[in-house]
Amino acid sequence: MENTNTTKAQITEESHQLRQTPTKVTAKRMRSSPGEQQTINTMNIQDMKAMFAELLDDKMKNLATKTDIEDIKDKLVENANQIQSLKEENAKLREEMQQIKESKEVDSRRISHLENQSKRKNIVIRGLACDANQRTFDRVTQLCNEVLNIPSPLPIASVRKLSEYDGKVNVVVELDTANSVEKLLSKSKNLKGSQITLERDLDAGKLLHKKLMLILKQKILTVSKVHRVSVRNEKLRIGDYWLRWNNKNELVCNDQKGEMVLKILYKELATKIDINYVNLLKILEKK
To answer: Which of 48, 96, 218, 264 is the most buried (most CB within 10 A)?
Structure first.
């Protein structure tokens, strides 16, 4: 107990002594004067301002100015005007191309009509046997007199050879009138059993249609032979139905579609008969 009181008294006395003894403070002298330090601080601020200004300039240089925006607007307007001008020019060109197309179609029909008119008096004889020493004209005359029973004087204006093969010729015979063609064709039954055929002199379009009909005939007979199939000029006959190609290259029978006629004639087998114009044309091109 006594020791504890002694210790407290000592602490109290030491504390009192510390209060009475002045504290010694040592201040470190600055290496530079206040003026110099202010100059350094001022320079640092200026450098910082310059640095920020440089950064701002660097960031702002890629941004569009008002002048740039106005220039862009002007270019957009100019481009829009050019696009509109091109659209109008294209529309005009399309219109001109359509007119040219229509004009070509009219010309094509006119040429086809003139060609048909010029061929109305012609007839084609195929597979006519002809000796090397016999004139083609004389052989045609002989055929008309002896086989077709056409009395003299014969209505033959001219004879033109188309092709020759294995001692036979294909010829175009020009008659005096279109009626003479009909009379001569009516006698074609006299040629039954021979390899000679008579047919009209068709224009290029109708001749193409005839060739396609011959291919179609072969396809039909491959599928079924229940109906008699024949080709006369550019038309295909199946039973009592006559089929032709219309101006859209579609197979039709009067106002009825060709595929409907085939369904009537061949039932479910009709699906096996390809009547597509383009597909038939590809087959023809391969021959």
So the answer is: 264
Give the neighbor-by-neighbor strand order of the sheet with 156-165.
Answer: 156-165, 168-175, 122-129, 197-200
Confidence of residue 192 (pLDDT cuts 50, 70, 90): confident
With cut-offs at 50, 70 and 90, classify the pLDDT of residue 52.
confident
- CA 43 – CA 121 distance, rounded (Å): 114
The residues near 178 (Cβ < 8 Å, ≥ 6 apart) are 120, 121
- What's the average model confidence in pLDDT over 111-115? 81
- For 259, residues 6+ apart whose C-beta sits below 8 A from its C-beta are 251, 270, 275
pLDDT mean over 29-55: 62
One DSSP character per residue, 108-177 reads HHHHHHHHHHHHTTEEEEEEEE--TTS-HHHHHHHHHHHTS-PPSSP-EEEEEEEEEETTEEEEEEEESS
Q: What would the pLDDT profile of 215-268 be if each residue is shown by its tens digit?
A: 999 999 999 999 999 998 899 999 999 999 998 999 999 989 999 999 999 999
DSSP three-state, residue 243: strand
Rounded Cα–Cα distance for residues 212 and 210 (Å) = 5
Is 169 a residue whose pLDDT tops 60? yes
Residues 6+ apart with CB under 8 A from 116: 203
Q: Which fold has domain 119-200?
A: Alpha-Beta Plaits (3.30.70)
Cβ atoms 181, 200 nearer than 8 A = yes
> What confidence category does residue 60 fall into, taking pLDDT thresholds of 50, 70 and 90?
low
For the chain, the structural domain boundaries read: 119-200, 204-286
Q: What distance lies between CA 118 and its chain's CA centroid?
A: 37
Q: Estimate to the nearest angstrom the gap between the alpha carbon of 261 and the chain centroid.
A: 31
For residues 124 and 199, the answer to whether their CB atoms sit within 8 Å is yes
